[in-house]
Design a protein that fits this description.
This protein is mostly beta strands and 428 residues long. It is built from three helices and 33 strands. A hairpin with a 5-residue loop joins strand 10 and strand 11 (134-138). It starts with a helix and ends in a 6-residue tail after the last strand.
Length: 428
């Protein structure tokens, strides 16, 4: 009975709003609706929102796309897993500040912005910002820190400039990219890209069944260890923030007339694009994974991948293939083992330079230690397998220790960093 009354209220609001609707605005006020066939445009005309159908599909979704780009590239979808089969949809803002996608034919709510928040707001307004961010705020308060809700916190498959990709450690909010199912179907696909904060934080690209596909590596002060180092360019700046409240990276455009976006494709490739005005098409700047050595753990435990040699996998110094026969046939699934018997005495560390650091999910870290203190800390524990600086700028700082088999190491040459691997360690 209660749900029926809610549906009736929504339908009544929709009927009233069609008389008050103005398509020239970038904002929706309480009890106004944006019906299918009408659109809101951001203040300078960069983004547009409304209902759309993907190519080769008749299903209707509410989304946001670039208006100034001829392809109308979609960057966010609300009801991605609850499409409409006709044009009876409408976006409505309720009096208590909740955005809903409504099927006006039967009153069913297909999507709602109200996930976990309990805050109330007196004069709510939903506004499409020039950044492509759809926000709910108080009509008289434009401070981003006071937004009740924003689409940037709930991305689809696309990260736009200004969006924080990462985790709020206070609220637990983790901004996750999830791929479209296909290029014609925006429903949730098989791949996700998210921050993992177990051990020292890193970003993981996951496939179906929670299988690791690609790992960014930890932030080292200059770049994520497993991604191309962001050189100075005329398109964007890269910022990484790591404190007690949040961990995230964000891209800021240098020139507002240039458009750039990061997308997780339906095939599981994390891509960064820039719009080319001359060709009127998106230019690919980066791909992750970029090559076979970017595939997670391809050489398995204590193996190292080098795309410049054939075969790409080899064992770290002081290690050998667990199965020489399998290794000779390019089956690296058994990984590598130590050449000498395991014990806990200190026979030293082997220094590797220019590598992507191993998986950090079972690591320990201290941001204030220096490298000498880090080595001493590792020597105290028979379970410690390797150590490295966290920040490679200047003389280096911070301590990162590994306590499990070292997984997913890649030779990155000058863009990599140093790690010190113990060759006489045991797990007890």
């Amino acid at each position: 009975m209660a749900r029926s009354l809610i549906k009736l209220a929504f339908l009544s609001c929709f009927c009233l709003s069609t008389l008050l609707f103005s398509h020239a605005s970038d904002s929706i006020l309480p009890n106004q609706s944006l019906p299918d066939g009408k659109f809101f445009v951001s203040s300078n005309g960069t983004f547009e929102m409304g209902f759309f159908s993907p190519d080769n599909s008749k299903k209707r979704f509410f989304g946001i796309w670039y208006k100034v780009i001829s392809t109308g590239t979609v960057v966010w979808v609300a009801n991605r897993d609850s499409p409409l089969n006709d044009t009876s949809g409408a976006l409505t803002l309720t009096q208590d500040g909740n955005l809903i996608v409504l099927n006006t034919a039967n009153g069913n709510v297909l999507w709602s912005s109200r996930f976990n928040y309990t805050s109330s707001i007196r004069n709510p307004v939903a506004q499409l910002l020039e950044s492509g961010n759809l926000v709910i705020r108080d009509e008289n308060d434009e401070n981003p820190g006071n937004f009740l809700w924003q689409s940037f916190d709930h991305p689809s498959d696309t990260a736009l400039p200004g969006m924080k990709m990462g985790k709020n450690l206070v609220t637990g909010l983790n901004r996750v990219l999830r791929s479209w199912k296909t290029s014609d179907d925006p429903s949730t696909g098989n791949y996700s890209f998210l921050l993992d904060s177990h051990g020292f934080p890193q970003f993981l690209l996951m496939g179906s069944g929670s299988v690791e596909r690609f790992r960014s590596g930890p932030w080292n002060g200059k770049a994520l260890s497993g991604t191309p180092r962001p050189n100075e360019n005329m398109i964007y700046t890269f910022e990484f923030v790591f404190n007690q409240e949040e961990i995230y990276y964000t891209i800021q455009l240098i020139n507002s007339s240039i458009f750039s976006r990061q997308v997780l494709s339906p095939t599981g490739i994390l891509q960064r694009f820039s719009w080319n005005y001359r060709t009127q098409a998106w230019t690919t700047l980066t791909n992750s994974p970029a090559d076979i050595c970017d595939n997670y753990g391809i050489c398995h435990g204590y193996g190292i991948c080098d795309i410049s040699i054939n075969p790409v996998c080899s064992c770290l110094d002081k290690f050998k293939p667990q199965s020489e026969k399998d290794w000779a046939s390019a089956d690296w699934s058994g990984g590598c083992v130590r050449k000498t018997p395991l014990n806990c005495k200190n026979d030293g560390f082997v220094k590797y330079s220019g590598v992507k650091l191993p998986d950090t999910r079972n690591s320990w870290y201290n941001l204030s230690m220096n490298l000498e203190e880090c080595e001493k800390m590792c020597l105290k524990d028979c379970y410690c397998m390797a150590y490295a600086n966290i920040d490679i700028r200047g003389k280096g700082s911070g301590c990162l220790l590994w306590f499990e088999d070292l997984m997913d190491i890649k030779n990155r040459g000058e863009s990599g960093q140093d790690i010190y691997i113990s060759f006489q360690r045991t797990k007890g």
